[in-house]
Amino acid sequence: MSLSKFLKNKSVFLKNLISLATVQGLNYLLPLLTLPYLVRVVGVDKFGVLSLATVVIAFFIVVTDYGFNYTATREISLNKSNKKELVKIVNSVMTIKLFLTILSVGILALLIHFVHKFNEYALVYWLTFGSVIGQVLFPVWFFQGVEKMQFITVINVISKVLSTLSIFIFVKSPEDYFIVPVLVALGSIVGGIYSLYLIRKDFGIYFELQTRQELLKHVKGGSNLFLTTMLSTALTSSGLLILGFYASNTVVGLYAAIEKLFKAIVGLFAPITQALYPISCKQFQEDNDSQKQYLKKLISVMALIALVISSSVALFAPFIVEMFYGEKMVIYSYVLQVMMIWLFFSVMNNVLGIQYLSAKKLDKFYMLAFIVSGSITTLMNLILIPEMLIDGILYAMIIGEIILTVAMIVMIKGKKL
């Protein structure tokens, strides 16, 4: 079955795509409204402080997610008509997330105590940690799995819009920079609490203590994708983190401002890949010929979309940077242009790693490829950033993504996966 015909006959995919596009659109587009405002009001220096804190906390978000955004989605997708199994999955995932949150609090406390760079702005880091709480409470994976994303679309719209408006209302001077993480986290926390209420009310999922064996099953099931996602975060975020130790807050802020634009562009692909994932999981349960045809069509379509978007952004990068940050920042537009190479390979890696290897429950091979590329990228960041600063990040990121692509292709072809 061709991909176009498959998607055409799947109205569920289109509904979820619209819902996910709305959610992801708000996640990336609304911050774009506040970006120019924040850079101008709190200044590039304090924006750098906020950005570094966000990167550090992003690692804790990965820890508490533990790969469940994919593994739990997959399990719920395959068991959505079995309420008893759904209760087990939801309670196991939320219990594990609770333990991981407690662990994360302890680790952050140690970092703030022993690392001067973090201790200097301890309050900012603790307030930014509120985003971890919001992510833990918001079970997007459940609604993705049952393919009912419309249930939480409205919640996301309201919470994100209110958070954005609050920034314009309450942040008026450089001294107000610490308010930003509070406003960002509050929306997701309130939305998460309400979404858990919806799971209870509309799906009848009740609280039930799970056995140690059941919890360990989900810990084991999510371990490969957790390591992969952690390495992915290291691949994309270690550069800014390391830069924070070698450059001033102003330089960190300059790079972070451009990177925010890049991530917003990457976000254009998120609703497509997330809505495709449950379908890919089902598709790779079918016969081998159907799998190959689906994968070929998927690679062709996603490669074309990635090529068009990356080329267009690279061409208009100076205009885009000036529009958001002013004429003084145009000199850094080359950073966005080079990042478009990174974008293309990132999209291809999602298709090979998530839509194919993960959907076929071959997570360990995806993890192995990430171990190779993530290790090399982090090592290159450590070597290049002290001497080249921002340019060092760009070299390391692009080489890392290319290595990841090559590693997965070699494994898929070599082992005939």
From TrEMBL:
Localization in the cell: Cell membrane
GO cellular-component term (any): plasma membrane
Key words, A-Z: Cell membrane, Membrane, Transmembrane, Transmembrane helix
Highest rank taxon of the organism: Bacteria
Stored InterPro entries: Poly_Biosynth_Transport, Polysacc_synth
Transmembrane segments: 12-35, 47-68, 89-115, 121-143, 150-171, 177-199, 225-247, 298-325, 331-353, 365-386, 392-412
Keyword Transmembrane: yes
Pfam families in UniProt: Polysacc_synt (PF01943)
Membrane topology: Multi-pass membrane protein
Listed name of the protein: Flippase
